[in-house]
C-alpha cells in the first residue's frame, strides 16, 4: 500500500537529521520515493489548495520550497565565511568549505558570467563580495597570495623551482614570471608587485641566494658546513655547489662579496 503523507514526512525528517541537509538528493538510492515526494510537495505548493496544516508541518521541519535559491544562499554564506577567514574570495577550484564544493560552484558562476547567463542580481551579489571574474587575473592573485604565505613562513621569496605551495606549482610559476620579465613582456603592475615582495630577477643571483639559504639550513641542522660533495639538500646538489665555489676561490675567480658571505658561514 502507498505510504500516507505523515509517513513520508517522517521519512523526510529522518533524512534531514541523518544528512544534516534539508535538500533530498534525487539520486538517493535508499529511498527513491522520497525525492519524488519532495518534488510533488513543491509542485503542490505552487498550485493553490495545499493544506495549510501540511505547509506548516513541512516548514517547521525546514522544508525547502525553492532548492535553487536555497543552494545559492548556502554557497553565498560559505563564500562569506571563506572570505572572512582568508581575507579574499580567490577560492581554489578544488577547495571544499564545510564539505561543499565551494571552488567548483564559484567556477560555475564564472562560466555562467562568461556565457552571459548569470542573473544580474546574483552577479552584483558576487561582485560586492569581491569576486574576480577574470580567470587569468584570479590565477595571478592566487599565486601571489601563495607567494606571500611562502615569504611569511620562509623569510624570503627564493622559491625552489620544483616547490609546491598549497598544491600549486609556485616555483614553476615564478620561473615563468622571470622568463616573461626577461623577454620584456611582463606587465609593469605585476612586475612592481613582485619586486615589492623582494623577487630576485637575476636567475644566477637567485640561484646563489637559494644555495646560501640551503647552506644556512644545513649548518643550522648539522652545526657545520663540511658538506659531502654528493650531498643533496631539498633536492639540490648543495655539496657539488660548495665544491664549485671552493674551486672558484682557488682560481681567484670568486666574487669577493660572495667569498666573504661563505667565510662568515664557516666555509
Automatic annotation (TrEMBL):
Residues 4-63, 70-130, 138-198, 206-266 form the Helicase-associated domain. Gene3D superfamilies: 6.10.140.530. It holds the Pfam family HA. Transmembrane segments: none annotated. This is HA-domain-containing protein.
Amino acid at each position: 500500500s502507498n505510504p500516507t503523507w505523515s509517513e513520508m514526512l517522517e521519512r523526510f525528517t529522518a533524512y534531514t537529521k541523518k544528512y544534516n541537509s534539508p535538500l533530498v538528493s534525487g539520486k538517493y538510492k535508499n529511498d527513491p520515493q522520497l525525492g519524488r515526494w519532495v518534488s510533488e510537495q513543491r509542485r503542490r505548493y505552487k498550485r493553490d489548495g495545499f493544506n495549510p496544516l501540511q505547509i506548516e508541518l513541512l516548514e517547521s521541519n525546514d522544508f525547502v520550497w525553492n532548492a535553487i535559491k536555497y543552494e545559492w544562499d548556502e554557497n553565498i554564506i560559505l563564500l562569506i565565511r571563506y572570505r572572512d577567514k582568508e581575507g579574499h574570495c580567490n577560492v581554489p577550484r578544488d577547495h571544499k568549505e564545510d564539505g561543499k564544493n565551494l571552488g567548483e560552484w564559484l567556477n560555475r558562476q564564472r562560466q555562467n558570467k562568461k556565457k552571459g547567463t548569470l542573473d544580474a542580481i546574483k552577479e552584483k551579489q558576487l561582485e560586492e563580495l569581491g569576486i574576480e571574474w577574470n580567470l587569468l587575473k584570479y590565477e595571478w592573485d592566487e599565486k601571489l597570495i601563495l607567494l606571500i604565505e611562502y615569504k611569511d613562513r620562509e623569510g624570503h621569496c627564493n622559491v625552489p623551482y620544483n616547490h609546491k605551495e598549497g598544491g600549486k606549482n609556485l616555483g614553476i610559476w615564478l620561473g615563468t614570471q622571470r622568463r616573461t620579465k626577461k623577454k620584456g613582456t611582463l606587465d609593469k603592475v605585476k612586475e612592481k608587485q613582485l619586486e615589492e615582495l623582494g623577487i630576485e630577477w637575476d636567475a644566477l643571483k637567485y640561484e646563489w641566494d637559494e644555495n646560501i639559504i640551503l647552506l644556512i639550513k644545513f649548518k643550522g641542522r648539522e652545526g657545520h658546513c663540511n658538506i659531502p660533495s654528493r650531498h643533496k639538500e631539498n633536492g639540490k646538489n648543495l655539496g657539488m655547489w660548495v665544491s664549485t665555489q671552493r674551486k672558484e676561490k682557488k682560481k681567484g675567480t670568486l666574487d669577493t662579496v660572495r667569498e666573504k658571505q661563505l667565510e662568515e658561514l664557516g666555509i
